[in-house]
Design goal:
Number of domains: 2
Shape: elongated
CATH class of the largest domain: Alpha Beta
Order of helices and strands: EHHHHHEHEHEHE
Helix content: 40-55%
Oligomer: single chain
Mean pLDDT: 93
Strand order of the largest sheet: 3-2-1-4-5
């Protein structure tokens, strides 16, 4: 069956921002070995969770070392994290061939964006890059990727086999599996989508 819609992840799929998003967690906290180890452990376990969840986990762990932070501090740290990563995502290099791929595919397919980035921030980033013209819909958290994909299929009256998910993370693959769509893994510094 012909693919009618392509659902792209953003970070690591269209733009080269994954490392900056990881580095930003370390930038928020004191540069001491115990804290670095805690951040390493939390990211190893929860990398695809929301920034609020990850920061909350880090704060809970560093409390053991006498560095105190309350619930409000988690919100403040998450906001600071957002500032660090949003500005970078607006200007960082695209994954090689990303814009050309979007331009090519939009001629015959409906394109969507599904990311773990908060939806309002994601829309701001996409507009600043001039990429809003490519997408029928731009979706981010707090929805998870399976929920977003189900919504796209239903609202656009698509069959699962008419949809392809393109991403670089396990959450992209899992959403495709959960919704019975096709999946293409982006595993290098060049975007290749063959339909």
């Amino acid at each position: 069956m012909r693919i009618k819609a392509v659902v792209f992840d953003f970070d690591g799929t269209l733009v080269d921002s994954n490392q900056k998003k990881i580095d930003a967690y370390y930038d928020l906290f004191p540069a001491i070995p115990q804290v670095k180890e805690i951040i390493d452990e939390v990211l190893l376990q929860y990398l695809e969770k929301s920034r609020y969840f990850i920061i909350d986990q880090i704060v809970k762990q560093i409390d053991k070392y006498g560095i105190k932070a309350d619930v409000l501090a988690v919100d403040v740290l998450a906001e600071l994290y957002g500032e660090l990563t949003t500005n970078y995502a607006k200007t960082c290099p695209e994954i090689q061939n990303a814009e050309n791929t979007l331009e090519r595919l939009r001629r015959e397919h409906i394109l969507f964006l599904s990311s773990g980035t908060p939806e309002d921030v994601l829309n701001e980033i996409v507009k600043s890059r001039g990429w809003d013209k490519f997408f029928r819909g731009v979706y981010g958290s707090p929805r998870d990727k399976t929920e977003t994909l189900n919504m796209i299929i239903k609202e656009n009256e698509l069959l699962p086999e008419e949809v392809m998910v393109v991403g670089d993370r396990d959450s992209d693959r899992v959403s495709a599996e959960n919704c019975l769509t096709k999946f293409t893994l982006v595993d290098s510094n060049i975007l290749r989508v063959d339909i």
